[in-house]
Amino acid sequence: CCLCIPTQYSKGIFTKTMRPAYSFGVRLENPMFKAGFSPGPGYFINSSISRYGKDGTPSYTILGRQKDLNAFKTPAPGTYSPEKVHPQGERHAPAYSMGSRTRFRKSDTVPAPNSYSLPTMLGSRIATQRAAASYSMTGRAKTGSFAEDLAKTPGPCRYNPANPNLCKKKQPAYSMLGRSYMPGDSTKKPGPGAHRPEGVTTNKPKAPSFSLGIRHSEYITPLIIDVTD
């Protein structure tokens, strides 16, 4: 006989623990579902969304710079003057302020106080008013004044100081002569470094010395001169 072992996916074994089994359904016959309207494998799924909903991790964003900074006109610390505030509870003199002219006074044509000009009270200008004495200063006259030079005498700077050697014993006078040179030979003499005593070979033995002559070509015709007796 043949013994068959039932599998877990068998539908007739109800005494065994059965695992969940899944099957692939067939495509519906409706032609509307035959076209592929479902997203492909690259469909993006937000990582913060799970099957239980959105996770509670805090998220932050950075705003851009405001275009108009004039909306924030917060005063700086140096704008406040706490030293000008009167202490609380102490008496102080009353302070008054002058408000601006109301809209009803704008049409007032009364002149201001600085529009009037008072006449001067120096000299006899107004017949009905008592004026103060006024004086004037004139320039210095050249003729008839106390500083007029009638004699036309010269001043002290016109005279030259007298030479004391004319009326007193004359002091010794010295002069400076030019620089003089001693007579001698003005020719140029060689210095100590100009002499070479090691190069003198007149009275000392000398090693043989050789010189290199010019190279002669073998194809040059020798110079032949006719010698006449």
General description of the model:
The chain is mostly loops. It is 2% helix and 2% strand. It is built from one helix and two strands. It has one helix at residues 164-167; strands at residues 49-50, 53-54. The chain has a two-stranded antiparallel sheet with strand order 1-2. A hairpin with a 2-residue loop joins strand 1 (49-50) and strand 2. The chain starts with 48 loop residues before the first strand and ends in a 62-residue tail after the last helix. Mean pLDDT is 76; it is low at 6-10.
Would you spell out the secondary-structure blueprint of this structure?
Blueprint: E1 49-50, E2 53-54, H1 164-167
Antiparallel strand pairs: 1-2
Structure, briefly:
The protein contains 1 helix and 2 strands; from the N terminus they run ββα. With 229 residues, it is low in regular secondary structure.
Helix content: under 10%
Q: How much strand? A: under 5%
Question: Based on helices, strands and strand pairing, what is the structural class?
Answer: little secondary structure
Quick one: how many beta strands?
2
Uncertain parts: 6-10
Give Rg in angstroms: 66 Å
Q: What coarse outline follows from CA principal-axis ratios? A: flat
